[in-house]
Amino acid sequence: MVSGDTLSILPLDGDWSGLEREYWGRAIAAAPLPPRPTALLVGLGGGTQAHLLHRAHRPRLITVIERDPAIVRVATRWFRLGDLPRLEFLCGDADTVVPSLVRARRRFDFVMEDAAYADEPARSERLARSLVPLVSARGILVVNRHRRGDARALAAALGPHFAEVRVRLVRRQAENALVCCRSPGPKGAYRGHPPGTERAAR
User: Fold this and answer.
1) Residue 133 is inside which H or E element, if any?
2) I need a labelling partner for 196 at 20 to 30 A (CA). Which of 78, 79, 167, 185 fits?
3) Could you tell me if residue 195 is inside a domain?
4) 147, 133 in Cβ contact below 8 A?
5) What are the pLDDT digits (tens) for 115-144?
6) CATH no. for residue 55?
7) Is residue 46 in some structural domain?
8) How much is the CA Rg of the chain, to the nearest whole Å?
9) Under a CB-based contact definition with an 8 Å cutoff, are residues 137 and 119 in contact?
10) Under a CB-based contact definition with an 8 Å cutoff, are residues 180 and 166 in contact?
């Protein structure tokens, strides 16, 4: 936990079902993924998202952008991330690493941005926009934001870049709002609900 926010959870009893109902699991369930997908995680924490991805889809590769090598060491040692196969760690600031992936023409079926949860809106939007070229033709970009933050504005900004963009509340008592963007292309629109009427996932 950092400043009262839970960044990662590892169930010591091996029961992941509760976490599948939290934002990590809801993000993975936001849209169908192909068999053995590729994934990009922007922001690692303890690696809860990576564990759930492996449980649900056995991805052929998970690439992680994490600016702090100490976080990678903690996740590997204390959150059992070292038990997972096919992980690629890119240690550096996303503002530097993401453009290098774009230049290399990398594409991912599932992209999760969980690094700018409470950042100021301009930086948040800039980071999310930079990830659009990394999403595969039928892939999904999911951005985690605070429900009282800039989720709706971010969804509207990303709308022109995807076939469908929705804002989903994880549940009524949670603070997370997921901006779910499916299938990049120039034909999209924000399919969100008016302020105050977003639907919580059940």
Assistant:
1) none
2) 185
3) no
4) no
5) 888 778 888 999 999 999 999 999 999 999
6) 3.40.50.150
7) yes
8) 16
9) no
10) yes
